[in-house]
Amino acid sequence: MAEFQPPVREDLRGLTPYGAPQLDVDVRLNVNENPFAPSPELARALGASVTDVARTLNRYPDRECLELRQALADYLSQESSAECGVESIWVANGSNEVMSHIMAAFGGPGRVALSFPPTYSMYPEYARESFTTMVSVPRTADFRIDMAASIAAISDHRPSVVLLASPNNPTGTAVSADDIAVLARATAGMGGMLVVDEAYAEFRRPGQPSSVAGLADHPNMIVTRTMSKAFAMAGARVGYAAAHPSVIDALRVVRLPYHLSAVTQSVACTALTFVEELQSNLQLLRDERDRMRRDLESRGFVVADSDANFCFFGRFRDRRRVWEGLVDRGVLIRETGPDQWLRVSVGTPQENARFIEALDEVVVDSDLMSDGDGGST
Ligand SMILES: Cc1ncc(COP(=O)(O)O)c(C=O)c1O
């Protein structure tokens, strides 16, 4: 084809799309999916709901997604022990889209978003797409929030949006309810919104409350969630947010008309009637995560604390070679975050065993590990 250079925006020229490699290997532990596929019964119910909705596809879907938002409100009220009404819930195509609505409504030219790297690598992209200036406060060596530096940065930069993933990706570390309350107050003091990204909330350990419980005290807080992880519905693309109704109204202004298809709404409503089945493997995944952590530590790796469905471990002199060695053995994990570390999602017990076995083979070569480890994070 003849060469053509379209008049792409200058700030986008030469950029490549975001995304982890999608390789066809046996053991895929690279994007924090839930390894358990829907049961035949659930698959049949999902199929039936698609057949039903197919008969109405000549019409646009419910623009307000009311049935789905009500079902999500009911789920969240029960999961987080906090009363949530339909007017406090927003829903979109994955929490990625929820976040782009948040940035469209609360970011923008001349405004600042603040985040805490290493963290979810999409945050700078949300900022770029909404022409928001991104500033960051690096985490401490053990991947906690540096509270003093954060308070100072909030007061210096007056961000209109603070993006805080808890549990954080890629580290797995969660932020305490007390620290979140302090950050919410500091952000409110500057007229900003605190977004707590709880994509992995359902994997949290006992004693770690969801920020949904704090919404009543902090009207400037938005908690985002997803059906991609605990609900094992990554392919359906459903994310949602809980916030004060006036915040939800602002998100309704920036969404595209009919942003969530009738098929997606129907599939998500059906999936929510199977919540017990969908989440029946959560405890097994939490136990597997803790076991994976012990397995890694017993081999001399440093492993960050995890309240999520993955482990972040290191430290490697050459993580690329480790990643490649694992791919050669049919195991795909993720090269992300600080360059001495790798992230592995928790799979089925069999997949996790395959990962550990492959890792043992790859890392016999101590040349791949960095010197002087043994420091704990
Ligand atoms: C911290 C965090 N937030 C949001 C998302 C996006 O999830 P979704 O599939 O709902 O778009 C991810 C996906 O991995 C994530 O790690």
Task: Write a structural description.
This protein is 37% helix and 13% strand. The protein is an alpha/beta fold. The protein has 2 domains: 20-36 and 281-368, Aspartate Aminotransferase, domain 1 (Alpha-Beta Complex), CATH 3.90.1150; 41-274, Type I PLP-dependent aspartate aminotransferase-like (Major domain) (Aspartate Aminotransferase, domain 2). Strand 3, helix 4 and strand 4 form a beta-alpha-beta unit. The mean pLDDT is 95. It binds pyridoxal-5'-phosphate (PLP). Residues 32, 94-96, 120, 165, 169, 197, 199, 226, 228, 234, 239 line the site of pyridoxal-5'-phosphate.
Give short descriptive properties of this protein.
binds pyridoxal-5'-phosphate, 13% strand, 37% helix, 12 strands, 3-stranded antiparallel β-sheet, 2 domains, Aspartate Aminotransferase, domain 1, 12 helices, Aspartate Aminotransferase, domain 2, alpha/beta, 377 residues
Summarize the structure.
By secondary structure, the chain is an alpha/beta fold.
Strand content: 5-15%
Q: Cα distance, first to last residue?
A: 52 Å
Estimated helix fraction: 25-40%
Question: What does the overall shape look like?
Answer: globular
- What is the mean predicted local confidence, pLDDT? 95
Order of helices and strands: EHHEHEHEHEHEEEHHHHEEHEEH
Largest sheet: 7 strands, mixed
Walk across the major sheet and give the strand order.
2-8-7-6-5-3-4
CATH topology of the largest domain: Aspartate Aminotransferase, domain 2
Number of helices: 12
Small molecules held by this entry? pyridoxal-5'-phosphate
Which structural category do the helix and sheet elements fall into? alpha/beta
Number of domains: 2
CATH class categorisation of the largest domain: Alpha Beta
**CATH A-level architecture of the largest domain:** 3-Layer(aba) Sandwich
Identify low-pLDDT runs: none
CATH homologous superfamily descriptor of the largest domain = Type I PLP-dependent aspartate aminotransferase-like (Major domain)
- Please state the CA-atom Rg, rounded to the nearest Å: 21 Å
